[in-house]
TrEMBL record, chain A:
This is Cytochrome c-type biogenesis protein CcmE. GO terms for molecular function: heme binding; metal ion binding. Belongs to the CcmE/CycJ family. Residues 29-183 are extracellular. The gene is ccmE.
Automatic annotation (TrEMBL), chain B:
InterPro entries: CcmF_C, Cyt_c_assembly, Cyt_c_biogenesis, Cyt_c_biogenesis_CcmF. Required for the biogenesis of c-type cytochromes. Possible subunit of a heme lyase. It comes from the Bacteria. The keyword Transmembrane applies. Keywords: Cell inner membrane, Cell membrane, Cytochrome c-type biogenesis, Membrane, Transmembrane, Transmembrane helix. Residues 645-668 are annotated as: Disordered. The lineage of its organism: Bacteria, Pseudomonadati, Pseudomonadota, Alphaproteobacteria, Hyphomicrobiales. It is found in: Cell inner membrane. This is Cytochrome c-type biogenesis protein CycK. GO terms for biological process: cytochrome complex assembly. It is a multi-pass membrane protein.
Amino acid sequence: MTRKGRRLVLISVGLGVLALAAGLILTALNDTIVFFRTPTEVAAKTFAPGSRLRMGGLVESGSVEKHGATTQFIVTDGNAQVKVAYTGLLPDLFREGQGVVTEGILQSDGTVKADSVLAKHDERYMPREVADALKKSGHWKEGEEGGPMPPPAKPAAPVKPSAALPTVSPAPVTAAAERSPAQ
Amino acid sequence: MIAELGHYALVLALALSLVQMVVPFWGARKDDPVLMGVAAPVSLMMLAFVTFSFGALMTVYVTSDFSVLNVVENSHSRMPLIYKFTSTWGNHEGSMLLWVFVLALFGGLVALFGGNLPDRLKANALAVQGAIAVAFLTFILFTSNPFTRIISPPAEGRSLNPILQDPGLAIHPPLLYLGYVGLSIAFAFAMAALIEGRIDAAWARWVRPWTLAAWVFLTLGIAMGSYWAYYELGWGGWWFWDPVENASLMPWLAATALLHSAVVMEKRDALKIWTVLLAILAFSLSLIGTFLVRSGVLTSVHAFATDPARGVFILGILTFFIGGSLLLFALRAGDLRQGGIFAPVSREGALVMNNLFLTAATAAVFVGTLYPLALEMISDAKITVGPPFFNITFGGLMLPLVFAIPFGPLMAWKRGDLLGVAQRLTVAAAVAVVAIVVTAAATGGGPVLAAVMVGLGVFIIAGALTDIAERAGIGRVSARVAFARLKGVPRSAFGTAVAHLGVGVCLIGIVCETTWSQEHIASMKVGDSFTIGSHDLTFLRIENRTGANFTARTAVFGLSTDGEPEGNIEASRRNFEARQMGTTESGIRTFGFSQLYLSMGEETPDGHISVRATWKPLVTLIWLGAVVMSLGGCLSLADRRLRVGAPRPAKAKPRQDKRPAPQPAPAE
């Protein structure tokens, strides 16, 4: 094989792998990403039952019910309530009145069957997505119970804390509070 | 006082790193041996000052000096000593100091053991190291000073995040940083080569041991982090595709590719430009990882608002080093002469394949990690890119790669014989087929794909053994001759085989854990029992326990198989008063390579507790595989040729060739 031919083979193999990678990435992005929704959006029934979503808000006080290993609770952003059912162990910092992020499948009755429930993993922070949802619904008040905490001097992010809460990394609340969706 | 001394030492280290950046570089330009000679002593002095500073921070932590802000925020007088010790880097400022300490350590090692490097290469490489140190020391001193005092010290600190109060914190970050930052050496050598405008096979021989050492640490660090998350978080997951994990996986993938391409460069003088680019990319990904984790960008792109200085500063460092190195690469890469032609089917070709797939996989992880951040910045849509994305893309790209592993080492250099290699792998393939059949039979014909994947893992292991057997001529010559030959096989060849074997082991663990795990979630009261993975668990009692700085509720379960008692397994929930937060301590019992994993949920007033038990077949193979991989790396590092190699003198362009390359240059 000539030098040119060799180079041609190399380049075409390289392009082939590149095309494979691009194809995989694009298909996967189409099929697997999960959108974050607020309880208001979910309650408005704009999404087809059976779709997968991620929803953040506060656990409504007094709404937590236990049926064996299954827990039912209501997630609210102040405007709307969505019932969530979850089978499994709840995170250590799951409390009524506190922020929570759930991910699961929307059922035909408008409830969410969650397969993961995430709470903040450090008492200083609230999940950013929850803060954003509250902000959106206009129910964000400084100093509210379960709301903004005193701003931490710094994100005490150790080397790998957010493994505790995949994708719901704790945001300093001030950061979220200072941001508005319009910007 | 000690805090001020630590701070002062850090300032002096900054001054020294400025000298280390400028003087040797200038010396190399002017070809002045005296100026170039400054590099080594200055980097050792800087190492001494950074070490002192790090020691000072450790001292204020261990003595619980609550007049230092950092200690107040991350320590508590009642914490066990080991956690006071590890709190030093369990926070932003301290971990940045650890980062710089490791950087200085590697610089010092190059200064100490690089005695036989060509003067200019060494001077330039240390100058680049100095530049990185300048950037990060400035960052620490101006935005993240760990020694800040507070005017009215509180009596008690706020304690370390309980999740981090674990021996894992003592091991995982230092290992990870040794890997992350160790890649800076490969980067510095690449930059030095580009500054000089010449590069040869000897360069690869110098760079490879450093990269290999960093890779070994990175492998262990990632595996350790994975196991830590597995036992500490109470979910039993060992990899979450969390952005922070991806931030460490990307440099690992790039470093793995670099190791393989450096082999081609060292042996065949080919792929030079590509190898240099990979060295730049590997460290750039380390920097990006540092940026993602340290700047707060992961928590939110808007977290800059809390402390704009910090995020913007790291972004500046990032832009300067990545942009600058790529620019230099673009300007100088054309000057690097290519050598060594090879046929597409050859050892070189196989290593190119390895590089293509590894870089494509890195790109996939990169896209998945950064796409949500980018999307949120340009639109307002919030999305998560979760495990399904990575399983499809990363899995899809790694499959052909791991399948090719056994073929690569058996291929001849320059021109390989695919058919011949395939013939030599028949035994391995036969073993793999048997493994598939046995697995399918043992699991009652479960998912066929999983059985095939187990077979693939066995194929890789058998292929690695075949490589060694082929080299020794086992089966072709008498046993005694084969044994004698086996002793003669270079350690680097053993290293390759062992590392590849580790990949196979890891793959089997991953497949078995994800496919055949059994889970049982229940609400239980004392006396209840259930069966999982042939083990019977009975809830015996629940009791209160106290630790140094926490109280715990511990559920004790009796374990038995077919009536044979097997002792107890305990899961508990701890409550840490200082932070008013709890952690879940899972109970783990290991049976062979499999584990029974038990975690306890909340208690109800009527005495029920929720319990989640998981039977994880062969799960420990995942981490054992990683350990075996790094063992392979160590074996390869121990190879005599790498340590006291005598690379042939570099052929240089006349223009730059003022001083000939020195004689025997050890790999260090």
